Amino acid sequence: MTGKIEITLTINGRAHAIRVEPRRTLADAIREECGQTGTHLGCEHGVCGACTVILGDEPVRACLMFAVQAQGKAIRTVEGLAADGALHPLQRAFIEHHALQCGFCTPGFLMLAVSVLERKPDIDDAELREVLASNLCRCTGYQNILKAVRAAADAMRAG
Amino acid sequence: MKPAPFQYHAPRTVEEAVAMLAAVAPQDGRVLAGGQSLVPTMAFRLARPAHLVDINGVAGLDRLAVEGDELVIGACVRHAAFERPVAAGPLGRLLGAVVRHIAHFPIRTRGTFCGSLAHADPASEWCTVAATLDAALVAKSARGTRVMAAKDFFSWIMTTTLAEDELLIEAHLKLLRPDTRFGFCEFSRRAGDYAIAMALAVFRLENGTIAEPRIGLGGAEGRPRRIAEAEAALAGRTPTQATFRAAADAAAAASDPLEDSQTSGEYRRDLVRTVLRRALERAS
Fold this sequence. Notes:
The complex is a heterodimer of chains A (159) and B (284).
Chain A: E1 5-11, E2 14-20, H1 26-33, E3 52-55, E4 58-61, E5 74-76, H2 89-96, H3 106-119, H4 125-132, H5 143-158
Helix pairs in contact in A: 2-5
Chain B: E1 7-9, H1 14-24, E2 29-32, H2 38-43, E3 51-54, E4 64-67, E5 70-74, H3 90-99, H4 105-108, H5 113-119, H6 125-132, E6 136-141, E7 144-149, H7 150-153, E8 154-156, E9 159-160, E10 167-174, E11 181-187, E12 197-206, E13 209-218, E14 225-226, H8 228-234, H9 241-254, H10 265-283
Parallel strand pairs in B: 1-3, 2-3
Antiparallel strand pairs in B: 4-5, 5-10, 6-7, 6-10, 8-9, 11-12, 12-13, 13-14
């Protein structure tokens, strides 16, 4: 069917019953149909990583999936990071280390880094550099993003 | 940057998938696996398939197992699965070393091994691995099942001998003997970008000389392949710098490099020499 399909997306634990065409990307559905505009869209072809969300327990480019493919899976976006009004340790570290300027790439970097730190709390610097190369930032020169993620990793391990 | 409309099909079994593919292939129906190459191509509207057969929900296609002397890789096995050793011995380590060169981690969580082979981008690391290790590729359609050798599978840039109604359901790689050495090297302009040239060198040592050399080139030519001239320059020789340079020179001379607006054939030929020499040094 090229016509609209009824699906349910579960974003940050909340179910969104929506109707989308099969060609609707997950990123567009999250923003347009579900109203969760924290997930940004940069290049729309998988290069920039601004639309990175966590699907299950893995980071994915939300522009390279169709929304219909994300049914039944737990989706996490930047809106779900803060708990009870308190910022996630990684969000605090981004502020403290000036890891953002314009902020456009930030949601993607946060979701990428959160998923990586959850999978590998003891990630070494070389691997962290490699994985953060997944996303593009035009402001910071990346060094402050590295510092922030490293600081957050240490803070998260210390509990 | 939005894909054109298409009809979406989500089969649950291989039989359903190949039946659907047979029905829609004549109307530009395509298989959707990881989508990490297909979806960008659709976003650019370079591809406008009328139908997509999404195989992600097909039972059993995520199979990744050692059976006898082979590693069996199902159609939905993601790149990221190879970041931990998937087989004991050198094959698991080889795949683990190569996978780190494929795009970026969030791409590797979705993209699939078999999807890369079916897409047949000359710059694909898995295509180079399949060609170098003579993978056996299992294609299924409503008409039946056939097995193809990698050397007969890759025809040219993004072109394979897979028929339009065939689904590549498995790739089989022979396990490598415990004393097998390997080295991989690729060059790309940016981290995670498509490689301009890559080389995979695999050999053993017998009484101090090189035995069963396999030299595979990717990215440089229109399709990945083993380079017999380089293998001949290695077989029976001692693994010295001079031997490696001779093999690298032989590969450069034997290669038929692609040219594009940014990269001349001569530059690619030079890269072939360099990436193969480095791959051999890493293997020794």
